[in-house]
Description:
By secondary structure, this protein is mostly helical. The protein is built from 14 helices and no strands. The protein has helices at residues 2-20, 28-49, 51-55, 59-69, 71-83, 86-95, 97-107, 115-133, 141-167, 171-191, 204-233, 235-242, 245-257, 263-279. The two termini are 17 Å apart.
Amino acid sequence: MAALFVTVAIWAAFALSARALSSSTLLPADAALLRFGVPLAVLLPALWKRRRAVAAVRPGPAAKIVCGAGVPFFLAAMHGGALTSAAFVGSIVPGMVPLFVAALMTARGRGMPRGTQAGGLVLIAVGVAALVWRYVVPVDAAVLEGAGTLLVASGLWALYTVGLRDAGLDPVGSIGLLCLPSFAVIGLLVLTGVLPTGLAHAAGADIALFLVVQGLGVGLCAGLLYAFAIRRLGAERSSVVGSLSPVAVVLLAVPVLGESPTAAVLIGVPLITVGVVLANRRPAAAARPLPRPEVPADA
């Protein structure tokens, strides 16, 4: 339980940092370099021992992992956070994942969700609609663009979830498969000038903050701790506690970022939270802890 609650706190910190990046001296590319580079540096010896297992992953699952949680996901989450609020990031990105995963599973012939799972997916959709409705009439193009970008990020994360299930790697191996090509891509984009960087002139406090939150927290600790919690508690109990992440983001955004929760947030976030709990419930026969996590092992 301690590992799980630390993971939820790290997820909340990710949402807060996505929003805080817009007022930071760092640019998105700088945050991405820290996000993917720090885990590689820390886990390099362990990753070298797993090089054959990582290289043996089929191209399909590998592409889902790298695209779903790598550079495209990271830049989409950062851009969406800059245009909206921490509550949007913390609710839409993780909240919509069960709905996108259900759509992917249905497309693969796994059947439609039923019962409480279907009800949970409906609540998630209603909660997201409640969040964005006040920006539709009258139209707030910036917020709607940000919300749409966060939906793209959530869809990519769902793709990562499916790829992680198919890859069959342990948490350390999955972190390596994600971070190595992502760091290489973001480094190439920075070196060629496609993405600007301000890392050389950034404030030391900003570098330290994102190094701890994105690099050590999100990139390293969350993946290992969440996988550990799932093995000890089971996927269902872990997902219930994990669904508290949107609530934690809303509560922390008030003192940390000075955000005041709107009526839409107070309605939408609880709906999404309850929906995530219901969407992650399994029938009694399938609710036993699994030997291998079926959820993302890397936030």
